[in-house]
Amino acid sequence: MSGLPGSIRALAWNGSEIAAVFLSYSDTMYSVASSIDGENWLTKGTFTQPQAEARIDAIIWAGSFWLLSSAKSIGTSPPRIDSLFIWTSSDLSTWNLRYSDSGGYISDFAYSGTRYIGIGQGMVESINGYDWQRGNLSDIEENGVIWTGQRFITTSYNGSGAYASSEGLTWSKFDNDNIYIRGLLFDGQRVIGVGPDGIFIGEP
Fold first, then answer.
1. What are the DSSP calls for 110-157, one per residue?
2. CATH of domain 6-202
3. What distance in Å separates the CA atoms of residue 152 and residue 188, rounded to the nearest whole number?
4. Cα(106)–Cα(177) distance, integer angstroms
5. pLDDT by residue (tens digit) across 121-130?
């Protein structure tokens, strides 16, 4: 692979272009790069905050634009998440800040076609991807969220269980097992979770 500006933090695909957020090898900035084939990469934009103060947690294609979350942390043992920032871009080069608060990071996004959900330390929600507010899952720390075509499903890597919602407003906890899952995906038929406890397959 050529043109890689650093180690990958997050990946997304819009059907024709792969977007990746990288941590630079000098640990001084984040770069957003794109690729058509996954081999050759072109840097599009940069976030110049020092690694100790800022990080990128998630990027997705949100239907007609790119959606990205970053967080600023203070302290080192362990770092304390201080501020959340949500950005949008149409071209991966120019990023517009849409939302910020001090409620904790967002580690993943999902889009149902009518509502955007962000999950991490608590939850954020939006109907257009530009105007955001904190949702009603305020006391959780979830790692991933997907839309299955029927409902949103979240999962955790700290064993706090999984939640589901058909519209993104009313949530119910449906899995109390202390299972650690780092990532979720939906292949059109099954929900697949991967983590240190193994691979898990569930119904949509």
1. EE-SS-EEEEEBEEEEESSSSS-EE-S--S-B--EEEE-SS-EEEE-S
2. 2.130.10.10
3. 14
4. 23
5. 889 999 999 9
The answer to whether the bond into 78 is cis (omega within 30° of 0) is yes
pLDDT by residue (tens digit) across 151-188?
A: 999 887 666 678 889 988 888 887 656 667 777 778 88
Q: Which helix (H) or strand (E) holds 190?
A: none
Pairing, β 42-47 against β 54-61: unpaired
The β-bridge relationship of strands 106-111 and 172-175 is unpaired
Gap between the Cα atoms of 79 and 127, Å rounded: 31
- What is the 3 state secondary structure string of 12-78? EECCCCEEEEEEECCCCCEEEEEECCCCECEEEEEECCCCCCEEEEEEEECCCCEEEEEEEEECCCC
Q: Please give the C-alpha separations between residue 6 and each of 3, 57, 100, 200, in angstroms, as whole numbers.
A: 9, 15, 26, 31
- Contact indicator for 42, 4 with CB cutoff of 8 Å: no
Spell out the domain ranges in the chain.
6-202
